[in-house]
Amino acid sequence: MTKKQVEEMLGAGGPAVKGSLVEVRKPCIRANCPACKSGCKHLAFMFHYATGGRRCCMYVPLACVEPLRQALDNGRLLEQCLHEAGPALIRAWRAKAGRTV
């Protein structure tokens, strides 16, 4: 996969990220919250990612969940393309050198 192909793919599909989106239930700070008292708690989303070899997480506002899901899908697609690009590159080099796969 060439740099131009990667840029075209990212331009067409939007941003790409690597990580995971996790749905969690968290208690709030209100003393008499019916949802928390019933044990249901409140829906929240966390983005988990790695940086510098460490796992980190970040709160995701509800309005950002769908765009983040799309960016995660784009990231998976990009990663798949990169995995496929290695063998394809070697086959191209072999073909150029006159060898068969």
Defining key terms:
101 residues, 3-stranded antiparallel sheet, elongated
> What structural class do the secondary elements suggest?
alpha+beta
Number of strands: 3
Question: Radius of gyration in whole Å, from Cα?
Answer: 21 Å
Pick out the low-confidence regions: none
Task: Classify the beta-strand content into a percent band.
Answer: 15-25%
Mean pLDDT: 87
Secondary-structure element string? HEHEEH
Termini gap: 18 Å
Question: What's the structural blueprint in terms of helices and strands?
Answer:
Layout: H1 3-13, E1 20-26, H2 34-38, E2 42-51, E3 54-60, H3 65-97
Antiparallel strand pairs: 1-2, 2-3
Helix pairs in contact: 1-3
Question: How would you describe what is shown here?
Answer:
There is one protein chain. Helix content is 49%, strand content 24%. Strands 1-2-3 form a 3-stranded antiparallel β-sheet, with helices on one face. With 101 residues, the chain is an alpha+beta fold. It starts with a helix and ends with a helix. The longest helix is centred in the last third of the chain and has 33 residues, at 65-97.
Short account of what is shown:
The protein has helices at 3-13, 34-38, 65-97, and strands spanning 20-26, 42-51, 54-60. It has 101 residues and is of the alpha+beta class.
